[in-house]
Specification:
The protein is built from 15 helices and 12 strands. The chain has 384 residues and is of the alpha/beta class. The protein has a single domain, classed as 3-Layer(aba) Sandwich (Rossmann fold), CATH 3.40.50. The strands form 2 sheets. A 7-stranded mixed β-sheet has the order 7-8-9-3-10-11-12, sandwiched between helices. Strand 10 and strand 11 form a beta hairpin. Helix 5 crosses helix 7 and helix 7 packs parallel to helix 8. It starts with 7 loop residues before the first strand and ends with a helix. It binds adenosine-5'-triphosphate and nickel (II) ion (NI). Adenosine-5'-triphosphate binds next to strand 1, strand 2 and helix 1. The site of adenosine-5'-triphosphate has 15 residues, from strand 1, strand 2 and helix 1. It is an enzyme of class 7 (translocase). It comes from Halobaculum roseum. GO terms for molecular function: ABC-type nickel transporter activity; ATP binding.
Length: 384
């Protein structure tokens, strides 16, 4: 198993938006893999670059956005294979699929995408069943009658009661959760190997969200479909993901199997994200929101991009851009041998850059976290 090629391999993906205000480095050198049947989380705050990364894999980035570098390999085919030359011009390899090949061979059939808002994907003026049937007819070699049968079966499969009746209803007659089920049915209809889901449950209430997550678990077992699950919610990650990529300002700053990420957290940002979710052992009042706001992706901070908000930031974090690698040597070989996702982190704490002797930085977060202690210190220094 471990020596099998991954289903999807994303390498050094960079996507930028060329705006009047400047270049937005929305996705800035992202790498991760998805194994067959694996559910991989892409998690981070708003603006981290999760959606743009998802769109880039499908080559759906819109103007003024552009993939400027990187490789995306799916079942051996190059969905993206772009190199940025030193003079700034872009070179697409000959292997890279054309937009026509993407449409014909990949989108819908091999990789399906589900968005947060079902109304973006469902046309309000047409009946749900008809839209589903048409999609199946378009992508599979079946007659209209067969497509209708498959469509009703799919509606039943995703837990929509009375599917024959609901087939003839319009999107607005479905609740939010039921609409999201329709989209899952549509995504599954061509039996893709990979589904990219961009916050599909974010707009739903917690109970309905839980039901959808259960459904996804069941369907994944049945069809062995792999998922890239975009979310800002670590609770969702804990519930369904096998492995996780934590994004901050266009970069993946920690990646690991889900248990390792939760119980052997390496990056201070991941820790902050974990602190901000409710846990059974903590009351809602004691949740720590992450201090400060995320800086702009047009002008990311120097050094480690999280240094302006990191409770553990030191002087060196402002200068050194952390490498993405294993936190301790030796770990990689063992984990690679077991076929597990390597635990990788981008934080200078784990590098040989003299973090220990570097001066702590003052930022919003160190003030917030140090709490009483810094107040005491400040009081002492003023000689009061
Ligand atoms: N069309 C666009 N033009 C300019 N900038 C864009 C455009 N689309 C996205 N961006 C920028 O790219 C960055 C990444 O955005 P993205 O939508 O991927 O974030 P996200 O992690 O999906 O956040 P959210 O949780 O809010 O969906 C942001 O700085 C965003 O402002
Ligand atoms: Ni998004």
């Amino acid at each position: 198993m471990s020596h099998e090629e991954p289903l999807l391999k994303v390498e050094n993906l960079k996507t930028q938006f060329f705006t009047e205000e400047g270049t937005v480095r929305a996705v800035d050198g992202v790498s991760f893999e998805v194994q067959h049947g694996e559910l991989v989380g892409l998690v981070g705050e708003s603006g981290a670059g999760k959606s743009v990364a998802a769109q880039s894999i499908m080559r759906l980035v819109e103007e003024p956005g552009r993939i400027v570098d990187g490789t995306v390999t799916y079942k051996g085919r190059k969905l993206v294979d772009i190199e940025e030359r030193s003079d700034g011009t872009l070179e697409e390899s000959e292997e890279m699929l054309t937009q026509q090949e993407m449409r014909r061979d990949i989108r819908g059939k091999e990789i399906a995408i589900i968005f947060q808002d079902p109304m973006e994907s469902l046309n309000p003026v047409f009946k749900v069943g008809g839209q589903l049937r048409e999609f199946i007819e378009l992508n599979r070699d079946v007659s209209s009658a067969e497509a209708e049968e498959i469509a009703v079966d799919m509606l039943r499969e995703v837990g929509i009661p009375e599917p024959e009746k609901r087939y003839d209803e319009y999107p607005h007659q479905f609740s939010g959760g039921m609409r999201q089920r329709v989209l899952i049915a549509m995504a599954l209809a061509c039996e893709p190997s990979l589904i990219i889901a961009d916050e599909p449950t974010t707009a739903l209430d917690v109970t309905v969200e839980g039901q959808i997550l259960d459904l996804v678990e069941d369907l994944r077992e049945k069809y062995n479909t792999a998922f890239v699950w975009v979310t800002h919610d670590m609770g969702v990650v804990a519930e369904i993901c096998d492995s996780v990529n934590v994004m901050y300002l266009g970069e993946v700053i920690e990646q690991a199997e889900v248990e390792d990420l939760f119980y052997d957290t390496k990056h201070p940002y991941t820790e902050a994200l974990l602190r901000s979710i409710p846990r059974p052992d903590r009351t809602v009042e004691s949740l720590d929101p992450i201090s400060g706001v995320m800086p702009e992706a047009i002008n990311p901070p120097s050094g480690c991009r999280f240094h302006t908000r990191c409770p553990e930031a030191r002087e060196v974090c402002r200068e050194a851009h952390p490498k993405h690698g294993p936190p301790e040597e030796g770990v990689t070989d063992r984990e690679a041998a077991e076929g597990a996702t390597e635990h990788l982190v981008s934080c200078v704490k784990y590098e040989n850059v003299d973090y220990e002797h570097s001066e702590p930085l003052d930022n919003e977060s160190t003030e917030a976290f140090a709490g009483g202690l810094s107040e005491l210190r400040a009081g002492g220094d003023d000689g009061e």
